[in-house]
Amino acid sequence: MPCQPITNALTIDVEDYFQVSALAPYIPRDQWHLRECRVEANVERILLMLEEQQTRATFFTLGWIAERYPHLVRCIVDAGHELASHGYGHQRASDLNEADFSADVGRAKKLLEDLSGQQVRGYRAPSFSIGEANLWAFDCLQRPVIATVRVSIRFAMITTVCPARHASPIG
Predict the structure, then answer these.
(1) For residues 101 and 115, what is the distance between their CA atoms, to the nearest angstrom?
(2) Domain span at residue 146?
(3) pLDDT tens digits for 30-87?
(4) Residue 153, SS3?
(5) DSSP-derived 3-state class of residue 62
(6) Is residue 3 part of a domain?
(7) For 133, which of 49, 75, 110, 151 is 20 to 30 Å away at the CA?
């Protein structure tokens, strides 16, 4: 399957500060709802900056965030940006088995599509956690429920979008 052209060269992860993998030992997932969220103000600020520059981006959005702030999803889409998935709960793909990974990606995709009214075709694994040890994740992303998803793969400092098993260097 040939690579699809890149929709946007600028990408943004829509997650809150306490959801990053580096803070997982200090902020348990079951306490996320107790934290002050900064994502609303930050996304609004980013949307304003992008509008001023007449620039479009792909927003890789967590399902957890979309569920709590559905208006953010609509603001992103209404401003003409691409909505993509960052999974539901920012769980590293390398920490999940195939069934749990498929469930996480499928849940996020359905939620984002229901909120936006658009097909979600992009996915970025939290902490770029798809590698040699879990290439099965690409097979999961090709399954019928998720098959329209293309994967954002980090190659050195370059992000390329391609549904193929392996990234190729750009330029």
Answers:
(1) 21
(2) 11-161
(3) 999 999 999 999 999 999 999 999 999 999 999 999 999 999 999 999 999 999 999 9
(4) strand
(5) coil
(6) no
(7) 110
